[in-house]
Write a structure and sequence with these properties.
The protein is α/β, with parallel strands linked by helices. Helix content is about 35%, strand content about 25%. Keywords: Signal.
């Protein structure tokens, strides 16, 4: 190519670029990276989250994350994972956001989307009024959960971890556990499929379904997510999604 011709070609390319026809520049590429979906983890237990008959993610928090993305304008990819894995993924770069139940007095995370009841129950005939009623008993709870610091610190209560509420209920019915501690909505979902006589569910504590975020996420995105959480909470979206008819 002769020099004058090449100059004219370069000038034409510059003109086209100015009109936005050429591929993204470095600033546009940075904007594209900023719009990449944030990875949001939640527990892979129904009715919260799980896989449908064709492997697609289903559950209350899957639908809630879609509404969180719409209200905040922040693209989000839900990632159901085992309960104990989510915090590690958030701190190790494997996730950007996490929904997890927090029972601390001050509350954790950047905001929360709703509240849940933490309950205890046993076989038919079990009664509960105070922590002393659990002394000498074997109490089962979801592995890596921490719903009652008082119970966990009490040496006169025997603790036993299980991997799912389905497993916990089977262990209770087989008399390998005396009591189960857990989230009311998860327990009611499992008991809807279980046979056998079960005691009433007794309230022990309240927890927040809190949204945690990677500290590297920018302030504007955090503010948008917080505003969306407040809207979801005010509209009681999580309660509506949890209490709708679920496919079992």
């Amino acid at each position: 190519m002769h020099v004058p011709t090449r100059r004219r070609a370069l000038a034409s390319m510059a003109s086209i670029a100015a009109l936005g026809v050429l591929p993204a520049t470095s600033s546009a590429a940075a904007a594209a990276v900023a719009k990449a979906p944030l990875r949001l983890t939640m527990v892979n237990l129904m009715p919260w989250a799980g896989n449908g008959p064709h492997g697609q993610p289903v559950g209350a928090l899957i639908d809630l994350s879609a509404q969180l993305a719409t209200l905040s304008g922040v693209p989000i990819t839900p990632m159901p994972v085992p309960y104990g894995r989510a915090p590690h993924m958030l701190t190790s770069g494997g996730a950007d956001l996490m929904l997890i139940i927090d029972t601390s007095a001050k509350g954790g995370g950047i905001d929360y989307v709703g509240t849940v009841d933490i309950v205890v129950f046993g076989r038919s005939g079990f009664r509960f009024q105070r922590m002393e009623d659990l002394f000498g008993k074997t109490v089962g709870m979801l592995r890596h959960s921490g719903y009652s610091p008082e119970l966990e610190a009490e040496s006169r209560i025997h603790k036993h971890a299980f991997d799912s509420y389905d497993q916990g209920v089977r262990m209770l019915q087989a008399e390998r556990l005396d009591v189960i501690l857990g989230v009311s909505d998860s327990i009611e979902y499992v008991l809807g499929k279980a046979a056998g006589q079960i005691s009433p569910r007794y309230p022990l504590a309240r927890g927040r379904v809190a949204l945690y975020a990677d500290p590297k996420i920018d302030a504007a995105t955090i503010a948008a997510l917080q505003a969306a959480c407040r809207q979801l909470r005010q509209k009681r979206v999580m309660d509506e999604l949890l209490h709708r008819p679920q496919r079992r």
